[in-house]
Amino acid sequence: MLLTNKRVLIAGGTGLIGGHLCNFLKKEGCQVELLSRKAGLYNGIQAYQWSVDEMKISHPELDKVDVVINLAGASIADKKWSKERKKVIIESRINAAKTFEKYMLEGILKPKVYLSASAVGYYGDRGGEELTEDSDPGDDFLAQTTIKWEKSADLLKQFARVIKLRIGIVLSARGGALPEMANPQRFGIGALLGGGNQYMPWIHIDDVAGMILFLLTNEKAEGVFNAVSPNPVTQKEMVSAIAKGMGRPAIKLPAPAFALKLAMGEMATLVLNSNKVIPRRILNMGYEFIFTEASTALKDLKERKI
Q: Does the residue 184 lie in any domain?
């Protein structure tokens, strides 16, 4: 499918990935629109109001939308995982998909492609096991959340070509995990979380956008794809790569797993889980990564500040 002149509607488009993706889509000649809790202009792009709680979309021309990209969902990292917060995390994702399903059932929304974000948290804590799209899911909260997330996307298979993107740790200088990891290193300190031997399935933000464009245009692309670099690194290796990219050595200080669990509770799985995830399906389809090595990716982000 050629993207030129296609109308693309993005839910969650004001976030880190969505904002970057908008630029890529506009360069392809797409008409990009957003769904947000508040209507208005975001960086010159029209946002229409929607509510996943009320399952309502206030958009005057939904029937003309060619592609829906759903990046919506409450943050998993900004608040402790109380019982209520867990409910919000899950329901924000499921209800977003159900809102789109409602409008498709009514024949108002008729996209050719529906692309949904998911996450590598699907796999749980797997040590050094090499994980592909066919690997079994884990059993912790993140895994159970992504299972439900992906099942909600599958509800739309009867209406559109459905793509589910299991996104890893997105590297960007503008937000996400990288600034949090880099800040201590400004003072020459690199924290080894739980020993630092857990695998971090990273991806440069350019490759997230590049993969999405590749999958949208490839008519045979459907189902699950791992959005990660072909070369996952351990947390210890990432600390070293960040230090090298910043041009200053870092003293590696251990942050024991038990201390992280005491401080963060169940949320410690975010930094302690090991996911050696490989993007097998998209490599087999011929996608060529822009950045395959963490050191090169970090150097680029430092230079371009994206």
A: no
